[in-house]
């Protein structure tokens, strides 16, 4: 298996539960390819970090302001 | 109206987040939230009970966001197909391994800055797929349906978005990316 073939299955590899026909081959590739091993682990971390940080937080005061504006517009429409 | 207010409260944060991911500008994101909920309200009778209200709302919000982005860059076409034909991210280059715990390298607000700056560098068509699939947790099928893309198109964009983000984050997170004396916790 080449690194390109491995990368094509990265999405499935990130989903631990996915049934992948070639899982054994992919895992075999991981064992002997540091490049793909690092790519997999750091991509997994990338997703986790984006998921666990609220980078576009909606503050409560703005939230209330938006609610009022939305409901006023809906009533008028 | 009370029932609709409940829906607004239930989904406003998600819509605000998705809008920000696309427009990358807070005022525009606020406008998107208002316009998307107003549009959804006006079209409520067109809503087919067979799709989820949330994904239907997300579709409206994505379209509103793209429209805002277009307005801001006057004259420049913006679609979710824009700039996606790039070779960057097809094969990772910077393969230094990361620190075992990148979270420990930066304070909360510094980390949020890094994450915002990093995703900002991606084309809108990648940002939106990453936001829906990885941040909001929509399935590949839902993402495809919401964006009007094929499943293979979503998969290929998602792969490249993830790899580009990974590559760009490497300079912050790789081992020895940050000298120990910088971790003084002063922030
Ligand atoms: Zn490999």
Give a verbal description of the structure.
The complex is a heterodimer of chains A (77) and B (187). In chain A, helix 3 crosses helix 4 (34-52). With 77 residues, chain A is an all-alpha fold. Chain A has helices spanning 3-8, 10-14, 23-32, 34-52, 60-76. Chain A is elongated and about 60 Å long. The mean pLDDT of chain A is 92. Chain A has one domain. With 187 residues, chain B is mainly α. Chain B contains 7 helices and no strands. The longest helix of chain B has 23 residues, at 151-173. Classes of the chains: A mainly alpha (77), B mainly alpha (187). At the A-B interface, helix 1, helix 4 and helix 5 of A face helix 1, helix 2, helix 4, helix 5 and helix 7 of B. Bound molecules: zinc ion (ZN).
Keywords:
heterodimer, A: mainly alpha, 5 helices, B: 187 residues, mainly alpha, Rna Polymerase Sigma Factor, Chain: A, Arc Repressor Mutant, subunit A, 2 domains, 61% helix, binds zinc ion
Can you describe this structure in just a few lines?
Chain A has 77 residues and is mostly helical. With 187 residues, chain B is an all-alpha fold. Chains A and B meet through α1, α4 and α5 of A and α1, α2, α4, α5 and α7 of B.
Topology diagram in text:
The complex is a heterodimer of chains A (77) and B (187).
Chain A: H1 3-8, H2 10-14, H3 23-32, H4 34-52, H5 60-76
Chain B: H1 2-23, H2 26-42, H3 53-72, H4 108-120, H5 124-135, H6 140-147, H7 151-173
Helix pairs in contact in B: 1-2, 1-3, 1-5, 2-3, 3-6, 4-7, 5-7, 6-7
The complex binds zinc ion.
The site of zinc ion (ZN) has 6 residues of chain A, from helix 1 and helix 4.
Oligomer: heterodimer
| Class computed from helices, strands and strand pairing of chain A | mainly alpha
* CATH homologous superfamily classification of the largest domain in chain B: Winged helix-like DNA-binding domain superfamily/Winged helix DNA-binding domain
Rg on CA atoms of chain B, Å: 18 Å
């Amino acid at each position: 298996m080449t690194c390109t073939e491995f990368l094509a299955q990265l999405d499935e590899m990130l989903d631990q539960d996915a049934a992948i026909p070639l899982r054994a081959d992919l895992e075999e590739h991981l064992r002997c390819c540091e490049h793909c091993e690092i790519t997999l682990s750091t991509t997994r971390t990338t997703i986790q970090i984006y998921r666990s940080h609220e980078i576009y937080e909606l503050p409560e005061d703005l939230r209330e302001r938006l609610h009022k504006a939305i409901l006023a517009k809906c009533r008028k429409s | 109206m009370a029932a609709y207010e409940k829906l607004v409260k239930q989904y406003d944060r998600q819509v605000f987040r998705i809008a920000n991911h696309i427009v990358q500008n807070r005022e525009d994101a606020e406008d998107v939230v208002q316009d998307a909920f107003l549009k959804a309200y006006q079209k409520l009778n067109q809503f087919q009970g067979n799709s989820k209200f949330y994904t239907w709302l997300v579709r409206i919000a994505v379209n509103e966001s793209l429209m805002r982005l277009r307005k801001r860059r006057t004259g420049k076409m913006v679609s979710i197909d824009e700039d996606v034909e790039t070779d960057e991210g097809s094969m990772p280059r910077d393969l230094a391994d990361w620190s075992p715990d990148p979270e420990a390298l930066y304070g909360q607000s510094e980390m949020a800055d890094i994450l915002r700056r990093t995703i900002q560098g991606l084309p809108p068509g990648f940002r939106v797929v990453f936001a829906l699939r990885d941040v909001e947790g929509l399935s590949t099928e839902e993402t495809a349906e919401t964006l009007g893309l094929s499943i293979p198109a979503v998969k290929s964009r998602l792969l490249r978005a993830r790899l580009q983000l990974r590559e760009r984050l490497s300079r912050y997170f790789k081992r020895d990316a940050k000298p120990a004396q910088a971790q003084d916790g002063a922030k």
